[in-house]
Amino acid sequence: MSRSSEQIEALKKRVAKVTSWYHAIDLGDGVMTPGVFQVKSFLPEYGIPDQLDGQRVLDVGASSGFFACEMDRRGAAEVVALDLPGWGDHDWTPRYRADFESKSAEERAYIDDITMRAGFDLVVESMGCKNVRKHEAQIYELSPETVGMFDYVFCGSMLMHVRDPILGIQAMRSVLKPTGRMTVTIAMTLPDTDDSLARFVGDWDQCNWWQMSPRCLDRILKCCDLEVLDERNTFTLTNVDGSFQDPTYVVHARPRQR
Question: Which of 23, 36, 40, 177 is the most buried (most CB within 10 A)?
Answer without folding.
Answer: 23
